[in-house]
């Protein structure tokens, strides 16, 4: 492989490309994804190395002082194969608008109006929309791999109920690393070129086990430890999760399918995805990397905002009732802002319009429960809050994000416990961040380690820049 049509590689890249990358893709019943990955990875790896080798020193953006002290917002710094966010159109999974993903995913379950999250995992990892049998194959594989080891369940059972469900999820996922195939392979001296294979195995196992882990947390904290932990092979991933939560209503299962599809991936710069990538870049296994991701998702400016929205709506309804006037709503919003709080569920670091994930949830609500008081309120607020936020003259995006809607739908179907909501988000987010992790190892992404500096060092950079500007003007 001395050269391709467009690339001529240096010796070091050639050596990396030539490392064996086809794994043992037979057996295990999951030929679909793994075999596809084994074919795609060498091609993508060659492309990736070609970019690095031939264009690595080219500049694509300038770094401003604001970027350094402002959370790097807007800086094109990260790589992400699985999805890409357009500030107006929202998220694209593998180049496909989310709305189209929802429409095109195969309907696997009889009577279901939604595709399956298993299908989304296939799409995100392989880059191809699955055929019905391919999506079904992932479901079967996850049913097979879904039983949680006893030691992990014992640890969950030992948790004090006061430990937030998200903290429990982080702990449970971290302790699953005793199962890691990647750790085993690494300790046996596996070569970098094959890391992705065991990362893939761990990711499949973790996805498969998450419903039982998440349901055990729910049942322990809210249902005195009742509820099943058995995976039923007649159910899909979402069906099993809902049955274990004790909420087997078919419409609710469809809502959860949709929820899991919508929350799965949002490119790689958001806190949960970036945390997973960062920790994974040190070659921590997928269980630890995902646990770190969940620690990030648990923050109120990120995933926990869906809990915050419900807290806020509950206060609102208590203060001004279920059918307040527009003026009462505006005053309540103003009071929130006056007290120094943000309006949860509104605004976004990248999006500049209503989040399509909000719209898709609202469409589900209009089909299934348009008369629900919470749904009506959220739909009305969508028309009122943006104008109030615009008046602040500082909010970059005054429109609702994904978190503004999910809670009222969950309430409608009797999943009432607000501080559990981010766990649902986390189960879904696994699909995206673990797909990303497989690709990070497949492409040999290096350890992440940006340079940092103190404020006095930053001032030196600023002086240098000022000097250069003066010279230019002269
Ligand atoms: C799945 C997700 O993670 S989606 C996001 C979930 N989070 C929320 O819904 C929490 C509410 N929203 C927010 O706090 C913010 O909009 C964020 C964190 C999502 C984005 O933050 P940023 O990129 O800094 O937003 P932006 O550039 O618009 O911030 C500018 C100012 O507007 C304020 N602002 C932004 N959104 C809001 C809001 N919803 N309510 C009130 N003020 C807001 C910011 O606090 C900031 O104020 P400051 O200059 O006094 O510090
Ligand atoms: O993209 C972001 O920063 C936050 C978000 O909406 C997500 O992670 O789903």
| SS element count, helices | 21
Hetero groups bound? acetyl coenzyme *A, oxaloacetate ion
Taking pLDDT < 50 over at least 5 consecutive residues as the criterion, the unreliable ranges are 1-5, 19-30
What's the architecture of one domain, going by CATH? Orthogonal Bundle
Strand content: under 5%
The CATH H-level superfamily of one domain is: Cytochrome P450-Terp, domain 2
Alpha-beta content class: mainly alpha
Physical arrangement of strands within the biggest beta sheet: 1-2-3
CATH topology (fold) name of one domain: Cytochrome p450-Terp, domain 2
Kindly, what is the distance between the CA atoms of the first and last residues, rounded to a whole number of angstroms?
52 Å
Q: State the helicity in percent bands.
A: 55-70%
Subcellular location: Mitochondrion matrix
Main location: mitochondrion
Keywords: Transferase
Family: Belongs to the citrate synthase family.
